[in-house]
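Feature request disguised as a bug report, sorry. It would help if multi-protein outputs had a clear separator. Right now it looks like this:
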Amino acid sequence: MSQGGAAAHKAAKPQDQGWAWMVLFAAVLLQGLTLGFPSCTGVFFKDLQHEFQASNSETSWFSSIMVAVLHGGGPLCSILVKRFGCRFAVMLGGLLSSVGMVSSSFCKSISQLYLTAGLITGLGSCFSFQAGVTVLGYYFVRWRTLANAMASTGVSLGFTLWPLLSQYLLDEMGWRNTFLIFGGILLNCCVCGAIMRPLQLASESVPESPEPGREAESSAEAAQLSNGASSPHPELQQQSRRTACSQMLQKYLAFDIFCQNKGYRIYTIGVAWMMMGFALPHVYLVPYAIQNGVEERKAALLISIIGLINIFIRPFTGLLSGHRVFTGRRIYLFSLAALLCGLSNFICVSSAEFSVLITYCIILSIAMSGIGALTFQVLMDVVEMDRFSSALGLFTILESITLLIGPPLTGLLVDITSDFHYVFYNSSFFLISAALFMGISFCMLEKKNKSNEGSKVPLDNPSRYQYSEMPTQPQPESQPPPAAVYITSI
């Protein structure tokens, strides 16, 4: 064996075995610490209202900012990972999350809480979570799908444990001391990051010819830098900067795909609209139960029930949707899950008894599992994989905007009417309308494409949606994962 081949064999050996499983364990903990954390914010809702004399709308901004930054900081995390690596990004995120929660324990106003717990902790959670997901792509090749599925169970574990721990600490120590303890707990993200040591890939040991697209992009960037440095004309420099900016936007925010691909446009708009109502039960369910006489510990248990059921249902949903029967039909499964999620809210409106609320949480959790398991599978079906990371950047940013404004607007409505039922009416409206919009639009688009293309549709390629407008390009059998793929979980 040649020296280069031996080096490649040695570099590839750590993947899918040995230390890779420790990295997977760290990724499970990371997802529980980061994505699961916002599930406990509803436990502090009434205490924060009383402490700062804040309205429902003002208090809900705290959790909305945290969730929005966690989802929308993907492009920034991608740049950070590309420049400094996954381990640095995870550990920086853990430090930011800890600093944010420790600072929150000393806040004197609700607006200060927006900055500390909302922005700083949300951004730190974004860095830790998304860099932790990215590093799995380096450590796993053969078992990559299994690794990501196992890592996602951390979200459900977080949903189960965070509310129970929060209610216990709140009863024993108050919200300020609880936030201080949370700062120490979130610092464990740095420990998880330390486990994720950089991996020397075979592709880095053996020189490879660059991809044509990347080679052209690098040449264009080099030419622009050269022109900008040597040209004495300000107009040429300004044009070069505009071109570089355009390339950056196209790389991280796929506006060209949004304009050209109708399937991606429909799906992105539908999910963004759906998110206006998706997060409302997580924020207001505990306050709603407490207002209607449910004991505080039982009210916190409701969110934990949702997370516990997700642990078992989400992997099953992912396996079911991967069956060949559902190939090309996953968007309809996703729409059905959103529709069921919206209809389940009427159970909560009918009665606030604890037994009824448990029934509501069970049905809501089943529907949420479908949404969480299918969100990115559908996106991968609609968009070519070589543009997936770019399409996901725009997708998560639009999603984060509606996640940000949904709960505060609903909180304003509750302040005006003094009726928590409007929380669930609003949630049902956005979820049901989004489900019908996506389902009907994709059905019409598929029929239109069938009538227009007819025999042009390749029948021997069942892995592609017929409504996808992006041309299929041959993909290499083995290629290194992207520097960063910013992925969120619902």
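(second protein starts here, but nothing in the output says so)
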Amino acid sequence: MSVMVARKKVVRKWEKLPGRNTFCCDGRIMMARQKGIFYLTLFLILGTCALFFAFECRYLAVQLSPAIPVFAAVLFLFAMATLLRTSFSDPGVIPRALPDEAAFIEMEIEATNGTVPQGQRPPPRIKNFQINNQIVKLKYCYTCKIFRPPRASHCSICDNCVERFDHHCPWVGNCVGKRNYRYFYLFILSLSLLTIYIFTFNIVYVALKSLKIGFLNTLKETPGTYPSMSLTVLTVLEVLICFFTLWSVVGLTGFHTFLVALNQTTNEDIKGSWTGKNRVQNPYSHGNIVKNCCEVLCGPLPPSVLDRRGILQQEESTAQEGSCPRGPGTQEPSATQGPGQAQEGGMKQQDGSIPPPSAVPAPSVSDTEMPEEKQRTPGELPVPSLDAGRAEH
């Protein structure tokens, strides 16, 4: 006989979150689904630094100073730490509205705009919000069913509304928003310094070698560990990677330094939110470069509102095979059972055992039909007579 048993299955909230994100380590790591370019970023940084530490650093530490590899290691570790912090964190995703909240917002919008005639385009869903004596428009997100906070925008790649959305960076494999922008800026800043550092000391290494054995002999020299690989290939590879990285990363660092000084985002700069035809001033700027930098890079970091590792309990009903004894009174007498057997089966206790004969009252003769000398006192059990027993024999 199959019995349905309800079991509770523990489900984390990150497993039910909408959007196009991937989670690892039980929801602790949050990234975009498109991570191919992020792996390329890791390969370029790790590969270039590995070549530099394996060949040039040993020679430069002996010829110039042992502080050269130490400072390079510090820059490398700092760049990797900020990269992973940017890539693995919640950028500031805003939760979507619950069905009840979405229905309430729809009712408010319909009450405000009224009924729109058929064939006409409904008015835009916008709320006005005042910040530092400036009117800021809050736009409605049709995907998340919410009015986005100021400076928030919906990322089309991750399919999430992100607070203080800057841009989606495929090189870090994540959106850049309010909760990880400072780490992104520190990453590109440290990566620029590391690239300049490696590029400079590659040139110094070739120059020192050329003074001793000549430039052509330096290019033909092979490392002792890998005799089949010419040092020319390794040096040229490092120089090329650093050269192209200088133009991109250093330029990107300068651009974001400009944005930090103005307390502005990349999204606002592209759209021309504060530099358009209306010449509306940026309400978030303090008018001071130092204050703007302190707010963006040193201000309090808001906690994540997703609660990715929260617990959702879901019940699962599973069927189990087993024997289930029937309760008292549920057993039906078969055709072969007699009346006495059916009555005996009906007087079984809940645990399936038959009560002792002394505990079962004799229903044959009532108290009123007994003679006066045979009547019992309350609580006294009836005693069967010997004559009744003989009559039965």
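Even a blank line would do. Unrelated, but nice: The mean pLDDT is 76.
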